[in-house]
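Researcher: I'm preparing a figure for a lab meeting and need a structural model of a single chain. I don't have an experimental structure, so a prediction will have to do for now. The sequence is pasted below. Please return the structure as tokens so I can convert it later.
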Amino acid sequence: MTIAGSLRVVEAGARVYRRTWRGSVISTFLNPVLYLVAMGVGLGELVDEGTGGAALDLPYLTFLAPGLLAAAAMQAAAGDASYPVMAGIKWRKTYEATLSTPISVPELLVGHLGWVTLRITFVATVFAAIMTLFDATTVTEGMAAVPPAVLTGLAFAAAITAYTARLKNETGLASLFRFGIVPLFLFSGTFFPIEQLPDFLEPLAYLTPLWHGVELCRGLALGLDFTVAPLISVAYLLAWAAAGGYLATRTLQRRLIA
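Model: Understood. Here is the structure written out token by token.
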């Protein structure tokens, strides 16, 4: 495997995005504003007036924003690692065209994940900047939360790419978002501490990669104590990324080469 081959795949993704970027403007720039206004300001005012703000020891908008940052990275990764991968394998067959060149399957996967990482970095940076405009955190702390958000997105991108590579049709992708991404978004600590979940669900929340991403982003953006050691969360997310990358490589190899 060579870096040059992977960079060619990244370049291809950038060239395509140069013509399609307008379709992502709303999700990248407007969604953070809408979420923070509706959930952070609107709902947050009700939470702060009740007992929720006192229980959190900080305004709800401030508590919510870093969690949404990690969730936005997850959602961006899921979007780029699902239907575009299916298109490359089945519909447009761009992966077969790529592999007809000297580029190998590992180079294709690394390039794909490299381009997704760049996309996630842009999304997370924009979200962090909007967080500071809402005075949810400082510029320095907001930018400090970007790397763990990107790592969270990479963990999901690798795992979802491996999942998508196994699918024969797109119905499995709808199930992924309905039964995977949406529940994680709601119950992995983004909107409320997972200690408020029923006792039997709380341990499951600790096992989700999004919770570790939320934990890292919230701790760095707000200067809060971490529930688990940050290195454990980083290692856990790296393990998801490594395992997903390994499985995706093997699956793509079998499906496109063998």
